[in-house]
């Protein structure tokens, strides 16, 4: 077995001047054109007496408002209770002289602030209930009534 140094394919040198590679021309991107009729109007093939279908309840704007109101309600109540407790812990850690000082005969400031934690927790619960009655419950009731109305409309078809 001998080694043949000649290549098995014919060798062609490159041309003297070769232009750089250019990809094929593509026109610039244009967004798709809007439909010929607005999305809220009936399609041209529908009979005009058919009523317009409502958006499904899951994409309803009221649900986003309800989530925001509920989120605000949770934050208010949580920050009320945890904010006071955090203040108590910070005073205990960084102001021990203040916490061991007395306010009245033999009642240390730290003990008084610890006893105030219970009414602050009740205040957080009261804030939670108040914001629920004022902001969250009316929205939830309205969405529930609309859902029942939509279900009755769907059952009647």
Please tell me about this protein's structure:
By secondary structure, the chain is mainly alpha-helical. It is 55% helix and 3% strand. The chain contains 3 helices and 2 strands, in the order ααββα. Strands 1-2 form a two-stranded antiparallel ribbon. Strand 1 and strand 2 form a beta hairpin. Helix 1 packs antiparallel against helix 3. The longest helix has 47 residues. It starts with 60 loop residues before the first helix and ends with a helix. The model has no long low-confidence stretch (mean pLDDT 78).
Topology:
Elements: H1 61-94, H2 96-100, E1 102-104, E2 107-108, H3 109-155
Antiparallel strand pairs: 1-2
Helix pairs in contact: 1-3
């Amino acid at each position: 077995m001998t080694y043949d140094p000649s290549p098995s394919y014919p060798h062609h040198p490159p041309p003297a001047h070769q232009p750089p590679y250019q990809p094929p021309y593509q026109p610039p991107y244009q967004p798709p054109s809007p439909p010929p009729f607005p999305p809220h109007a009936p399609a041209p093939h529908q009979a005009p007496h058919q009523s317009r279908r409502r958006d499904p309840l899951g994409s309803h704007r009221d649900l986003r408002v309800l989530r925001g109101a509920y989120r605000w309600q949770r934050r208010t109540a949580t920050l009320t209770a945890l904010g006071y407790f955090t203040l108590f812990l910070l005073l205990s850690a960084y102001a021990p002289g203040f916490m061991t000082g007395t306010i009245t005969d033999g009642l240390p400031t730290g003990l008084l602030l610890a006893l105030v934690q219970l009414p602050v927790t009740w205040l957080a619960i009261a804030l939670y209930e108040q914001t629920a009655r004022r902001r969250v419950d009316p929205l939830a009731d309205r969405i529930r009534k609309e859902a029942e109305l939509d279900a009755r409309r769907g059952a009647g078809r």
